[in-house]
Structure prediction request, 379 residues.
Amino acid sequence: MRSGDGISTSRRKDRHHGKRLLSTASAMALATIISATSVSDAFGVECMTGVHLDDASINTLHSPNIGQVVTGVGTSSSTAVTGPLVTIPPAVPVIGGVTGLVGVAIFGVTYTPVTSAEFVNSVTPTNNPNGVFATGVETVDVITSVTPDFSGATSGGDTDTACGTNATATGGNASAFGHTANANGAGATALGATAQAIGDGATAVGFGSEASGENSVAIGQSTAGGDSDIAIGNGNDTGTGGGNTAVGSDITVTGANNTVLGVGHTVDGDSNFVAGDPNIVVGSFNNVTGNDNLVVGIANQVDGNFNGVLGIGNQASGNINIVAGLANQASGNINIVSGAFNQSTGNVNLVIGEANQNTGNFNAVVGTGNQNTGNLNII
Prediction:
C-alpha cells in the first residue's frame, strides 16, 4: 500500500464526518439562539418567524497527489455581518486535515452576541521539500452567524411571551401567539389571529376571540365580557354581568349567572337556563328548553316550541301554548291559560280565571275553582 493511499482514505472519512458535524452544528446554533441572551433582559420572549444563516467557505486539505509536497497552510480571514451572531472564533488551527479544521470550527463556536467577528475563509497549501504529502484544496461551507428574524412582537415584561406579527403580551406572565394577538391581562393567554385576552387570567382562543373579564374564556369568534364568563362558538356575547356561559352561535346574554346553549338566543336577566334554538328570555330563574319560545318573568318553566309565557312560576309543556299569570300550568298543545293557579291538560283549551282545573280537549273554562274532565265543554 502506498503511503499516499492511506492518507487519502483517512482524510476522506474525516471529511464526510466533518460535513455531518456541520449539520449538527446548524441544529445546535438554532436551539442556542432561541435561549441566548441576545434578546434584551428588559423584555420577555419575542418569537422568531425565521432564522437567517450566514456562511463562508473554508478550503480544506483532501487526499494527496503523489509527488506533491507542502509544509503547512496559509490562512486569510474576513469580517462577519453585524448583529447577534453565532460565529466561529478567529485563528482556527488546522490539525490533521479536515478533522482538525472542521472539528475546531464547529465545537469552538461562540454563543455570545457580538457586533462583528473574523472567520477563516480560505486555506492555501504551500509546497515544501520535506516530504509531507498534501493535496489540492476542497471547499467546505461553515456557518459563521445565525441571525434571528424577529416578528415585530412586543412583550412588556420579562415573564411575558409574544409570538406573531404585531402580537402583544404586556400583562405579566401573559402569552400572545398569532397575528395581532393581544394578552394584556396578568396571566392572560391569547392564541390565534386577533385574539384578545384583556382580563386578568383570561383565555382567548381562535380568530376574533375576546376574553375581557377576569378568568373569562372565549373560544371561537365570541366575546366573554364578564368575570368568569365562558363563550364558546361563533357570534356569542356574554355581556359583562359575570358568571355567564354561552355555547353555540349568535347568542346574546345580558345579566349574570346564565347558562345558554344553542343558536340565536337572547337572554336578559339572571340565573336563567336556556337550551335550544332561538328563544327570547327576559327575567330571572327561568328554565327554557325548546325552540322559538318567548318567556318573560320569574321562575317560569317551558319545555316545548313556540310557547309564550308571561308571569311568575308558570309552566308550559308542549307546543304553541300561551300561559300568563301566576303559577299556571299548561300541558299539551295550542292552549291558552291565564290567571292564577289554573291547570290544563290536553289540546286546544281555553282556561281563564283562578284555581280552575281542566283535563281534555277543545274545552273552555272560565271563572274560579271550576273542574272539567272531557272534551268540547264550556264551563
About this structure: The chain has a mean pLDDT of 73. The chain has two helices and 36 strands.
